[in-house]
Amino acid sequence: MLLLDTCALLWLVQDPEQLSSAAREAIRKNARSLAFSPISFWEIAIKQSQGHLQFLRGVDLEKWQLEVISSYRLKELPLDASTLIDSARLPPIHKDPCDRMIIASALRHKASIVTADQIIPSYPKVKICW
Question: Is the pTM of this model over 0.85?
Answer without folding.
Answer: yes
